[in-house]
Design a protein that fits this description.
Layout lengths: L4 E5 L5 E5 L2 H11 L4 H18 L2 H23 L5 H27 L6 H23 L6 H19 L1
Helix pairs in contact: 3-4, 3-5, 4-5, 5-6
Amino acid sequence: MARWAQFGQDGNGRLYSRPFPLFVLLEAELKDTEFNWLTAFKWAGAVLASLWGKLHPLMQSLVVLMALDIASGLIAGYITRSLSSDVSWRGMAKKSLVLLLVAACGVLERAWKLEVPLASAVVGFYIVHELISIVENTGRAGLPMPRALTSALRKLRAQTEEGENA
């Protein structure tokens, strides 16, 4: 006898049993099943949390600062009424290139077994640039800047520009 069977009565009242194909059952179940967005978001969140936990703390800092820079840029653009999708896309493309550069440096660091933490140096360099950009966006929005912060960032900018030229 088949694993799945269909039971019933014929016209004369006799009971019968006949094999019932599995694909018909599965097809009926799939028709009743709806895509569950909540489950999809939970899975996506679990994957992102797993990837986030494996990142180096400096890289986590860079990603957070990039998100804050995007948010501060959007807010400053809204306040000054100068929002531009072209500028936003260009900025996000540049941030993507920064992340690709950091990933490439990490691969080279491991492949060549470098003694110098190349990826960390590159991440540190771009962390300073993200901080400067956030402060510039805040100033562009018209908020007063603490002198200690602006002087510290001027020193950091001078040091990074020296590093660029060297």
